[in-house]
Amino acid sequence: MTEETVVAAGPPPIVRIVTQRFDHPDSHTLDRYVATGGYEALRKALAGSPGAVVDEVKSSNLLGRGGAGFPAGTKWGFTPPGVWPRYLVVNGDESEPGTYKDRQLMERDPHQLIEGCLLACYAAGLSQCFLYVRGEMALAQERVAKALNEAYAAGFVGRNILGSSFSVDIVLHWGAGAYIVGEETALIESLEGNRGMPRLKPPFFPAAIGLYGKPTIVNNVETLSNLPWIVANGADAYKQYGSETSPGTRMFALSGHVKRPGVYEVQHGVTTFRDLLYSPQFCGGIRDDNRLKMFIPGGGSAPWFFEEQLDLPLEARPVGAAGSMLGSGAIVVMDHTTDAVKACLRVVRFYARESCGKCTPCREGTNWLETILQRIVDGHGRPSDLDKLLDIGDNISPGPYPAASWTDGGLDAVPFPPRQTTICPLGPSSVAPVVSALRRFRPEFEAKITKRSVNIPLHVEREGTRV
Amino acid sequence: MARLEPANVEIAHEIISRYPRPKSALIPLLHLAQEQDGWVSDEAMVHIAELVGCTPAEVIGTCSFYEMFKREPVGRYLVNVCTNIACQLLGAEDLLHHAERTLGVRAGTTTPDGLFTVEDVECIAACTEAPCLTVNYRYFYKVGPSDFDAIIADLRAGRRPTRCAAEPGEDGEIPAHGTLHRVRQSIPGDRRAGNADPDTAGEPAWLGAGGAS
Ligand SMILES: Cc1cc2nc3c(=O)[nH]c(=O)nc-3n(C[C@H](O)[C@H](O)[C@H](O)COP(=O)(O)O)c2cc1C
Ligand code: SF4
């Protein structure tokens, strides 16, 4: 992928797979779903063998959309043979800062998700499905409940689906407010009725030992929502779109200082960050035509990107090589008026609040990061604070940071994927904004420490008016 | 405040029956208690422990982990202002301060008339519509200070707020705090596939038929 081809050609044509029904006001109803080809993939699948569906999904190379980008078909293959039952747990806990797509898929096209669940269960031999919707999403829960009730009545879910030997219940489950529950092992703990604290892995991943100690596939809402289209149209049709290693389309939520924030479904792997931020079909540029200062490319946990990464394609490998991740498809754009220290504090504060407290480096470390950043912002920073921030970060996610690609500024990139002294990646996620902001904007931190300034809201501050 | 009422016990049994192990129903049942009383009382937790067959300590352990469960009464309307990064960039701090000033409370506390509780919350997945808030988990998008005042005035007057409401197609009702989704899943007995018991369930029937592993 070279810059020239993309810049010269403009963004690749818009293809809508998972959002194809969003323009219909009644897109969430069974009538609309069936009228637009819904549940045809299920019929097609039932006419063939489960193995045929697995092959189709494997061949489509559909990548997980929950954050880690693991190929869905491969994950299904990790269940140990001969161990029954197997479960499907749908991850609809969407809470990563900046992420807004699963809620849309659940509110606007719940039947597509349900059909995706059915296809996964049929293919991988999963005997019961639990659809875990984030607690705060009342409307999504309503829409999914309504859709399930309709689908049961119509014979698409439950016993002897469409008269076949395929029987599976899909149970709506809902959470109660905790970001960490999005982590798959915490999700399982929560579904067992416990505090949502992650389990240690490796050695055992949920596919081997999951819900009730049995093999469990955890997939994201968007991942599963792709299945009906793939099964109906075939892997080859899917692979026409996107790039070879990141086929199909993907939803990205663009928020912050852009002219037209929105959730856009674009071709995966070939569209670039620049396309999304600047093309008139998408965000149409930075607000007030301001300068771009930085952007978060993949949700709060992702190390920040800057102007020089704009031409990277939305594809896991090059983004990973540049030291960050596409994560959950959340891009938060910040213009030159943004106070980098405050932005950093805000993201860190999230992790401090959401740490589940199971392991010490995260529980204590995230709070110290927040405390120190807060005192810098409040004008009480100490000269030793910047080194202290890095030292705490090092205790959560050990360095010295081997540069993924950049070594300027005297500080290397946060290693990605991060090394961790913690049970899950939440702890290291809090280090990403600190290292990103410090290596790029150290003078801003220093200025706050040497020149005491008043803490005023982030968006009010304009360049030149800083005290 | 109390144990679950008979009608809710019936709902509780139905919810429990959908899980291979009863304790999995804990979070939904805590929501049910909160729906009944507006918050989760100790008596309700003891009752839930009896229903799912665990100790009250286990129930409180789970309950206290999740921030949506309130273990003391809150306002009829829970106003959750998102201040996470995407909203903060577009004025969420101002919105929160405005909310605190107009209602005369600090985030985390309730107005003396028991109508409003304000909270400063993390990302609520509406980042492209910043700054945003929810009232009893119903969304309001791109909320400025005067929009906020209009929403509060409507709620005080017993009207359904329309300004900035996220889903104009919905009826706009904002039920009292505790009621989350107003539609419950119900599985007709004759359509039910049945729970997959972790100890006894074997290979699913359709795999044998289809011949996959
Ligand atoms: C702290 C943390 C939070 C996460 N939150 C979510 C989430 O809200 N939704 C989600 O789908 N995956 C989330 N994940 C990723 C899940 O652990 C898991 O990888 C994913 O659900 C697998 O689905 P996929 O393979 O379809 O992407 C989170 C991971 C971590 C470490
Ligand atoms: S890293 Fe943080 S969130 Fe993850 S298990 Fe440890 S304490 Fe909990």
Explain what the structure shows.
Chain A contains 18 helices and 8 strands. With 467 residues, chain A is an alpha/beta fold. Chain A folds into 3 domains: 18-237, Rossmann fold (3-Layer(aba) Sandwich), CATH 3.40.50.11540; 241-335, Roll (Ubiquitin-like (UB roll)); 340-461, Up-down Bundle (de novo design (two linked rop proteins)). In chain A, a hairpin with a 5-residue loop joins strand 5 (249-256) and strand 6 (262-267). Chain A starts with a helix and ends in a 17-residue tail after the last helix. Residues 1-8, 401-415 and 461-467 of chain A have low confidence and may be disordered. With 213 residues, chain B is α+β, with helices and mostly antiparallel strands. Among the domains of chain B are: 6-71, Arc Repressor Mutant, subunit A (Orthogonal Bundle); 77-156, Glutaredoxin (3-Layer(aba) Sandwich). In chain B, a hairpin with a 2-residue loop joins strand 3 (133-135) and strand 4 (138-140). Chain B is globular, with a radius of gyration of 21 Å. The mean pLDDT of chain B is 95. At the A-B interface, helix 4, helix 6, helix 8, strand 3 and strand 5 of A face helix 2, helix 4, helix 5 and helix 8 of B. The structure holds flavin mononucleotide (FMN) and iron/sulfur cluster.
Outline:
With 467 residues, chain A is an alpha/beta fold. Chain A is built from 18 helices and 8 strands.
Total E-strand runs of chain B = 4
- Estimated helix fraction of chain A: 25-40%
CATH superfamily of the largest domain in chain A, please? NADH-ubiquinone oxidoreductase 51kDa subunit
How far apart, in Å, are the first and last alpha carbons of chain B?
A: 52 Å
Report the structural category of chain A.
Answer: alpha/beta
State the order of secondary-structure elements of chain B, H for helix, E for strand: HHHHEHHEEEHH
**CATH architectural group of the domain at 77-156 in chain B:** 3-Layer(aba) Sandwich
Beta-strand content of chain A: 5-15%
Beta-strand content estimate of chain B: 5-15%
Assign an overall shape of chain A: globular
Bound molecules: flavin mononucleotide, iron/sulfur cluster
The CATH topology of the domain at 77-156 in chain B comes to Glutaredoxin
Strand order of the largest sheet of chain A: 3-2-1-4
- CATH top level assignment of the largest domain in chain A: Alpha Beta
Q: Which regions of chain B contain 5 or more consecutive residues with pLDDT less than 50?
A: none
Query: What is the total tally of β strands of chain A?
Result: 8
CATH architecture of the largest domain in chain A: 3-Layer(aba) Sandwich
- Compressed to H and E, one letter per element, the order of chain A equals HHHHHEHHEHEHEHHHEEHEHEHHHH
Number of domains of chain A: 3
Q: How far apart are the termini of chain A?
A: 44 Å
Q: Mind telling me the CATH superfamily name of the domain at 77-156 in chain B?
A: Glutaredoxin
